[in-house]
Amino acid sequence: MQQEELGRRALLISAGCAALGLLGACGSDPAPSPPAQAGPAPNGGLVRTADVPVGGGVVSADGVLVLQLKAGEFTAFDATCPHQNFRVQPPDSSGTITCMGHMSHFRAADGTVIDGPALGLGGLRQVAVKVSGAEVVRA
Ligand code: FES
């Protein structure tokens, strides 16, 4: 009897949250979808160089955004947004990195904040990288 009442209450709370559009406040996580992620680099690097598009980037399995803004030149940032730690997306064709968490934007050239709630919290943290064989590795 008591378990039946708890189940009925949970159902009513869930229905109430959905009706009020309060999914985040009621326990469901409406987090944005994670950024596209590169597959593992077979020799222990962050990513394979071939997986990093020229003019863009990919996020490694361990959360490093590896960029190739010019052919053969690799740079990287910690993909963790300084606002509330969502992972940022690789840059678009204009060189803007977006955090879908709360829509902060960063310059791919240097990781500085353009706008959004990350303003004043510092930019993306640079990660030193180099090419080793066919992979991008931490320097
Ligand atoms: S976590 Fe990136 S803008 Fe909020």
Automatic annotation (TrEMBL):
<dbReference type="InterPro" id="IPR017941">
    <property type="entry name" value="Rieske_2Fe-2S"/>
</dbReference>
<dbReference type="GO" id="GO:0046872">
    <property type="term" value="F:metal ion binding"/>
</dbReference>
<keyword id="KW-0408">Iron</keyword>
<dbReference type="GO" id="GO:0004497">
    <property type="term" value="F:monooxygenase activity"/>
</dbReference>
<keyword id="KW-0479">Metal-binding</keyword>
<dbReference type="InterPro" id="IPR006311">
    <property type="entry name" value="TAT_signal"/>
</dbReference>
<dbReference type="InterPro" id="IPR036922">
    <property type="entry name" value="Rieske_2Fe-2S_sf"/>
</dbReference>
<dbReference type="Pfam" id="PF00355">
    <property type="entry name" value="Rieske"/>
</dbReference>
<dbReference type="GO" id="GO:0016705">
    <property type="term" value="F:oxidoreductase activity, acting on paired donors, with incorporation or reduction of molecular oxygen"/>
</dbReference>
<keyword id="KW-0001">2Fe-2S</keyword>
<protein>
    <recommendedName>
        <fullName>Rieske domain-containing protein</fullName>
    </recommendedName>
</protein>
<keyword id="KW-0411">Iron-sulfur</keyword>
<dbReference type="GO" id="GO:0051537">
    <property type="term" value="F:2 iron, 2 sulfur cluster binding"/>
</dbReference>
<feature type="domain" description="Rieske">
    <location>
        <begin position="44"/>
        <end position="138"/>
    </location>
</feature>
